[in-house]
Amino acid sequence: MPYIFSIGQGIPKYTISQDQVKVFIKHIFPFSERKWSKILPIFDNAAIHERQLAVGEEWLKKDHTFAEKNKKYQKYALQYALNAVDHCLTNENMLSEDIPYEAIDMIMFISSTGISTPSLDAFVMNERPFRNDVVRMPLWGLGCSGGTAGLARASDWLIAHPEKLALVIGCELCSLTFQKNDLKMSNVVGTALFGDGVAAALVAGDRSPYLTKRRGIVPKIMQTSCYTAEDSLQVMGWEVTNQGFEVIFSKSIPKRVKTIWKEHLTTFLNEMNVQKGNIHSFIAHPGGRKVLEAMEHALDISREKLHHSYNILKSHGNMSSATVLYVLKAWMHEEISRREKSILSSLGPGFSSNLILVEWD
């Protein structure tokens, strides 16, 4: 079974507090005071203290074409992806020695907040001394579920190639999709939640010689599962317009956690013959405070088993696919006993649920 044994981050330049976001949007959206009285509590109740952005407020205040936004995406996505990759391969807290770029056999690049052809994994390869025969696997359109789905697909590949090493990059610059003229509630909620972030995870097959470079107890991928609900295409995603991506974000998402996600997870655990009470922690993508609370209530689990999801949401906001990798990194710094089990979980467009059972080893 494949192992995840290092994670690096590419943290964008600008940090903005939730209070600053509230001041910013008051100058952007022309709502009445009565409507503001209903909207501002969305920001207050989001459980986000601050987040990071690739561009500053002055840039966001101006009108930009889709092409202008996408050029920024290509520039900063590459910059912060390289930072995350460099950190991942040299992370002394997780590695006993650096992993050479030449050791990487597959690069997966996950994103939904911009477009590029060639895909950005090719640009990453041109900036660092990777081998020319690296397998490239770009994944686009998975949104918030992309981090867990990407690790699952890397695991599939490494089970077939157990001696190899994969690099999984989750890269999302949500700020570059901001629509200052979109007054729909989806855009307001997205503005309250989304931040920018990039992370890279190193995943090894169980016969990789580089596993000897890991430090301590790390998560071993035991099994994966994906479930896509029918008639749920409009729950979350993008509406592509001349100005770029307009967010689709349904208020029904927490309700679907209590139905679709609960049923998927319960079935998954039963298939694995694992009791809910034996799960040490839930490494969950924090779609928002209401989503995390719905997870607690759906399974009657303690907040402590989700505490890093809450912490990442507080410090970084919802960074779409990259967020679950931030949460996983935080859990990997914990002293978790050998053979404990955790669940990685992400929900995304489709409407899809992606799950991974890991065992700490």
Write the layout of secondary structure elements.
Elements: E1 3-10, E2 14-17, H1 18-28, H2 33-44, E3 50-53, H3 57-61, H4 66-90, E4 106-111, H5 120-127, E5 135-140, H6 146-160, E6 165-173, H7 185-193, E7 196-204, E8 219-228, E9 236-241, E10 244-249, H8 253-271, E11 279-284, H9 289-299, H10 307-316, H11 323-332, E12 341-348, E13 352-360
Helix pairs in contact: 1-2, 4-5, 8-9, 10-11
Kindly describe this structure:
This protein is of the alpha/beta class. The chain has two domains: 3-213, Thiolase/Chalcone synthase (Peroxisomal Thiolase, Chain A, domain 1, 3-Layer(aba) Sandwich); 219-360, Peroxisomal Thiolase, Chain A, domain 1. It contains eleven helices and 13 strands. The chain has a five-stranded mixed sheet with strand order 1-7-6-4-5, with helices on both faces. A four-stranded mixed sheet has the order 8-13-12-11, sandwiched between helices. The chain has a two-stranded antiparallel ribbon with strand order 2-3. Strand 4, helix 5 and strand 5 form a beta-alpha-beta unit. The longest helix has 25 residues, at 66-90. It is globular, with a radius of gyration of 20 Å. It starts with a strand and ends with a strand.
